[in-house]
Amino acid sequence: MVDYYSLGLIGYPLDHSLSPRIHLAALKALGFKGEYKLYPVPAEPNGLEVLENLLEQVRQGILHGLNVTIPHKKTVLPLLDKLAPVARTIGAANTISLKDDQLVGDNTDSPGFLADLNRLGWSVLKEDNLHALVLGAGGSARAVVYALARSGWYVTVAARRPEAAEELIRAVQFIVAKTKPSGGRDPVIAVQLDKDSLTNLDPMPRLIINATPLGMHPREQESPWPLDVPFPPEAAIYDLVYNPPETLLMKIAREGGLRTSNGLGMLIEQAALSFAIWTGRTAPRDEMLAAIKDYISPT
Ligand code: NAP
């Protein structure tokens, strides 16, 4: 039984992180005492050393759980004893806990994204059109593609660097092989993130996910989707960005009559899943969301 939960987040920069508010609200709602500290750790000059020190504190039971974000989601992997399958496949961990004296890395971004898609009722979109388009090929794109491919969606990954998209596809190949239908197209393919490719998507995606930082503060005036290319009709737009709560991409799509959501729900879901790993309790999602209600998205 833990009397006082010492939790925290490693990453850099962390100035705008909502995680402390979310997790403190969860602890409070369940009557737990505890804290959620920010550990701003730049990659250089001694990031690895600081990371090792914090992990040692988890091993010794001084810290009871850590979240990890950019730039350490990948670099933390070799320092852990065990990885959950999702973290191993994606090649990134965002949640660290101690189980049976072993440091375990998990990734709650992927199930968190899927849970939010379900909450929005957008999972059923796939019944008449199974095609999703993911913009970007970084860490969160991997989490999203993993979730979608496992759920039977066909996914097109659009990235500015084709080699990044190809690398992503190689990483999720194991999942793709399992879901690959006989005949037909490959479940996950890559295209260049440019005007020409997005104009000529065939088939048209029913779901478009922004997994780039374009649109996020301080890049509010940028959109990963070229603004002079019409959106696929009836597409739903999920933007992983949640600050600002409505990105330029979401605004243009909403004005065109499309459904949109920001990534706030995913943020809550991934936090709820991390919280459950650390405490063994179902996270109080309503209280967690209420703690950051100023950011609630128009959907
Ligand atoms: P990341 O690993 O750095 O990946 C970013 C991706 O965006 C890369 O593919 C990158 O391409 C691409 N990109 C960056 N600038 C671009 C540009 N100008 N044009 C085209 N592509 C560009 O970052 P991440 O962790 O995946 O995060 C991406 C976004 O998702 C961030 O805004 C983050 O806050 C958000 N996020 C939200 C949640 C949530 O819970 N809602 C969870 C995770 C992440 P290159 O590789 O070529 O640079």
Report on this model:
This protein is an alpha/beta fold and 299 residues long. It folds into two domains: 5-107 and 269-291, 3-Layer(aba) Sandwich (Rossmann fold); 111-258, NAD(P)-binding Rossmann-like Domain (Rossmann fold, 3-Layer(aba) Sandwich). It is built from eleven helices and twelve strands. It has helices at 19-29, 47-59, 85-90, 109-120, 139-150, 162-171, 173-179, 195-199, 248-255, 264-279, 285-290, and strands spanning 4-11, 33-40, 65-68, 82-83, 95-99, 102-106, 131-135, 154-159, 188-192, 207-210, 236-239, 259-261. Strands 2-1-3-5-6-4 form a six-stranded mixed beta sheet, with helices on both faces. The termini are far apart.
Structural topology:
Blueprint: E1 4-11, H1 19-29, E2 33-40, H2 47-59, E3 65-68, E4 82-83, H3 85-90, E5 95-99, E6 102-106, H4 109-120, E7 131-135, H5 139-150, E8 154-159, H6 162-171, H7 173-179, E9 188-192, H8 195-199, E10 207-210, E11 236-239, H9 248-255, E12 259-261, H10 264-279, H11 285-290
Parallel strand pairs: 1-2, 1-3, 4-6, 7-8, 7-10, 8-9, 10-11, 11-12
Antiparallel strand pairs: 3-5, 5-6
Helix pairs in contact: 1-10, 4-5, 4-10
The structure holds NADP nicotinamide-adenine-dinucleotide phosphate (NAP).
Brief sketch in words of this structure:
The chain is α/β, with parallel strands linked by helices and 299 residues long. The protein has helices at 19-29, 47-59, 85-90, 109-120, 139-150, 162-171, 173-179, 195-199, 248-255, 264-279, 285-290; strands at 4-11, 33-40, 65-68, 82-83, 95-99, 102-106, 131-135, 154-159, 188-192, 207-210, 236-239, 259-261.
